[in-house]
């Protein structure tokens, strides 16, 4: 019996050690980068926010109103995103989830963009949307779908995706994202509206277009609808 108990103890200890090794991983980043420093005085707190003493938490820390209010779509792309992430709801910190409301004018576009830290699941509340995403290299496959009221579509984490209102009336969608701070990179804004500007030789060669076209695109006002 003692030898059996000893054997079971060794097995349990080994499995515990194995599981601790197998499932250990770094937390998902919640910012674009984190430069390492050796001097603590030069450091800042990252990857989340400081946490309030739980005894001081209130219901308002977990509450947000206003997602019933339409956003202003009077902009060049004809859409606006109203976020509900950790910046608006402090109680979302560390919970790994957030959401947005997206309003689209007729033929409004939520331009091609990515969420570097989140998968997105979107449901149409009103209108008709043409949505899609593109897979990573080397295939770059395009997946698209026409969505109507009540339809749901998923955009995998990090992939370029878009939504376009193909109807003659306003459209509304609600999306949930698997991060309290999913981040967003609007492709055209990042490439042609960066500060300072990317060298036009780089963009001209990268897009295989004339430099004059690159210069024209860089001269445009690239507004942020997020």
Secondary-structure element pattern, one letter each: HEEEEEEEEEEHHH
Number of strands: 10
CATH superfamily of the largest domain: Jelly Rolls
Q: Quick one: overall form?
A: globular
State the CATH class of the largest domain.
Mainly Beta
**Average pLDDT value?**
89
Strand order of the largest sheet: 1-2-9-4-7
Number of helices: 4
Radius of gyration: 23 Å
Sketch the major β-sheet. Answer: 5 strands, antiparallel
Q: What is the percentage of strand-forming residues?
A: 25-35%
Low-confidence sequence ranges: none
Domain Cupin type-1: 65-215
Binding site for Mn(2+): 113, 115, 120, 161
Keywords: Apoplast, Disulfide bond, Manganese, Metal-binding, Secreted, Signal
Main location: secreted
Could you name the key traits of this structure?
single chain; 226 residues; alpha+beta; Jelly Rolls; 2 domains; 5-stranded antiparallel beta sheet; 4 helices; 25% strand; globular; manganese ion binding; Germin-like protein; disulfide bond; signal
Furnish the topology, listing elements before pairings.
Elements: H1 2-22, E1 79-84, E2 98-104, E3 109-114, E4 120-126, E5 129-134, E6 142-147, E7 152-155, E8 160-165, E9 171-177, E10 185-186, H2 187-192, H3 200-207, H4 211-219
Antiparallel strand pairs: 1-2, 2-9, 3-8, 3-10, 4-7, 4-9, 5-6, 5-8
Helix pairs in contact: 3-4
GO molecular function, one term: manganese ion binding
Signal peptide: 1-24
Organism: Macleaya cordata (Five-seeded plume-poppy)
């Amino acid at each position: 019996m003692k030898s059996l108990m000893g054997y079971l103890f060794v097995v349990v200890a080994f499995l515990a050690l194995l599981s601790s090794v197998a499932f250990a991983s770094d937390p998902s980043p919640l910012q674009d980068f984190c430069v390492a420093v050796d001097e603590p005085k030069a450091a800042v707190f990252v990857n989340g926010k400081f946490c309030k003493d739980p005894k001081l938490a209130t219901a308002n820390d977990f509450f947000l109103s206003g997602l019933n209010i339409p956003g202003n779509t009077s902009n060049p792309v004809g859409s606006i995103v109203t976020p509900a992430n950790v910046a608006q709801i402090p109680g979302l910190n560390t919970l790994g989830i957030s959401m947005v409301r997206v309003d689209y004018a007729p033929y409004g576009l939520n331009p091609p963009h990515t969420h570097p830290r989140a998968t997105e699941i979107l449901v149409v509340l009103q209108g008709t949307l043409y949505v899609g995403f593109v897979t990573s290299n080397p295939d770059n496959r395009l997946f698209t779908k026409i969505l109507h009221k009540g339809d749901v579509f998923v955009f995998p984490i990090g992939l370029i995706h878009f939504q376009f209102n193909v109807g003659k009336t306003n459209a509304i969608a609600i999306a949930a994202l698997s991060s309290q701070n999913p981040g967003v990179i609007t492709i055209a804004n990042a490439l042609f509206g960066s500060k300072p500007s990317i060298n036009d030789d780089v963009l001209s060669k990268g897009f295989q277009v004339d430099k004059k076209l690159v210069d024209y695109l860089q001269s445009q006002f690239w507004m942020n609808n997020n």
